[in-house]
Amino acid sequence: MNQETNTDVVTEIRGGKRSGWDHNDEFAHIDRSKPKFGQIYELFIQFCENTSLRGVPRIVRASDRRKRLLWLNFVTIFFISCIACLIMITNQYLQYDVIHQAKRIFDAPRAFPSLTICNLRPFKSSDVDRLIRQGAVPVQAYFDAIMRVASTLEKRYASQFTTLLSLESYLLNLPEGMESSNLGHRLEQLVQTCVVLYQNGTSIRGTNCRKAGHWVKTLDRIYHNCYTYEVDPQIRAQTLSVEMVLYLDNIVEHTNCFDCQVKDCCNR
What we know:
GO terms for molecular function: ligand-gated sodium channel activity. The protein has helices spanning 2-24, 36-50, 56-61, 65-95, 125-133, 139-151, 155-161, 167-172, 187-190, 209-212, 233-236; strands at 114-118, 191-200, 203-208, 213-220, 224-231, 239-246. With 268 residues, the chain is an alpha+beta fold.
């Protein structure tokens, strides 16, 4: 007797769940006997009536055809305008480069004897020719343009704007297609010969710098590529001198100094 009662209760509960689901079905009023196209059309009308898109429900609920066409035109115009604005914003975003804040990097102290070589002219003559062909402005002209803009700003903003007065900032704003890593003097071009003289007992010996130590490349905020030479610890105490022959690559073909930097520009 108890088993039959429990079975009836479970059956009623399950039946109640099915009936509740059928009652709460959002699409229960759709005529399933219609063709698929008719059912899809009814679903589309139901979506338009309940959507939160502005103006779309008014198209479906309009009392006559004239109002329906009026709302349809409004919604279409606003939709096309929205797409046009998105395209304009995307084009503006892709058109302008992102300006990165220049940072100054300090190198760790070097053990003596060591020396650092920097060319006062950051770019090679071939680099200058390439920059001119790409339409890049001279370094000093870039600094002058920043100072002109900074002079029109308030003092609190101008002090931040003048942080762009560095070669690092100039290299971050090169013309499209140019990389700062491809500019500057190379070690093999700058240092023609290098000899380390060291004491070996009672005699003085000389050896190539690459055999007696190693080079470390650093990026200077003014001179770009710099190279530091460090002598190996085994002969550091016996080192007497380091002799080098350097190629400065003076630009004699150009009448103006493309990569010159006036230090007083930052203190105007």
